Amino acid sequence: MADSMDAGTEIARLIDIMDKLRDPETGCPWDIEQDFTSIAPYTIEEAHEVADAIDRKAWDELPGELGDLLLQVVFHAQMAREKGMFDFADCAAAISDKLIFRHPHVFGDESRDKSAEQQVKDWEAIKAAERAGKAERGTLDGVALGLPALTRAIKLQNRAARVGFDWPGAEDVLDKISEETAELVEARDELGPDELEEEFGDLMFVMANLARHLKIDPEEALRRANTKFTRRFQSIEAALAAESRRPEDSDLAEMDQLWNQAKIVEKADK
C-alpha cells in the first residue's frame, strides 16, 4: 500500500499523462476531441462501476475502478485548465475546504458528543448556509439535474420535507400509491402515450417517497432487484442448458416453474 508521498507522486504522474494525452500536437486524437459534455456520461458510468464492484465485494477490482473514476476528475480538470478556468489543485482544495468547514466538531471547537441524528441536522444547516451563499434561495435549488432520477426524487422530497411539505407517515404514501395506480390504469385505457408516461412518472415519484419513509435507498433496492432477477434468470438458462435447450426452446409456464425452483434453492441457502 502506497504512503501519502507515493500517492502525491502518482497523482502528479496521472495529471502529467492527461496533459500529454490532450496535447494538440502529439496527443491522442480521441482525447483531444473531448469536451465536458462528451466526457460527463463516462464520469457517471465510472461511478456506477465503482458501486457495482462494491456490491459484488470485488475488492481486487475496486482500486482499478476507483482509478477509472479518478481519471474522470483529472480529465475534467485538464480541460478546465486549458480554458483558464481551474485545475486539479483547485478541485482538491475545494473539497478539502468543504470537509473542514462541514466538520467543525473535528476541525473546530464544536463538541463531538452528539447523536448521528443531530449530526445530520447540523450538516443540513451548514449546507443550507452554503446554498444561501450561492444565492440558491429556493428550497429545491441546487439539486443536480444529472442525478439518477430515483436519487434526485429522494433529494427533492427531503428538501421539501424539511419545510413541512411531506406526508405524516408511510400509510399516507401507500394511499397515494393506490390513487396514482388508478390514474395510471385510466391513462392506459383512455389517454395517449404522453399522459401515460406522465402518470407512470407520478407513480414512480410516489414509490420513491415510500422508500424514503421506510428508510430504504430506492436505487440500492432496485440494484438488488436487478441482481436477483439476473441470478434467477441465469438459473433458468442453466437448467435448460442441462437439457441442451435455450429459453427460446421453452415457454413461460416452464420458465416460471424453473424461476420458482431457483427461489426455493435461494431460500434454502440462506
TrEMBL record:
NCBIfam families: mazG, PRK09562.1. Keywords: Hydrolase. It comes from Paracoccus saliphilus. CDD domains: NTP-PPase_MazG_Cterm (cd11529), NTP-PPase_MazG_Nterm (cd11528). Coiled coil: none annotated. InterPro entries: MazG-like_dom (IPR004518), NTP-PPase_MazG-like_C (IPR048011), NTP-PPase_MazG-like_N (IPR048015), NTP_PyrPHydrolase_MazG (IPR011551). This is Nucleoside triphosphate pyrophosphohydrolase. Belongs to the nucleoside triphosphate pyrophosphohydrolase family. It is an enzyme of class 3 (hydrolase). One of its GO terms (molecular function) is ATP diphosphatase activity. GO terms for biological process: dATP catabolic process; dGTP catabolic process; dTTP catabolic process; dUTP catabolic process; response to stress; TTP catabolic process; UTP catabolic process. Its EC number is 3.6.1.8. It comes from the Bacteria. Gene3D superfamilies: MazG-like.
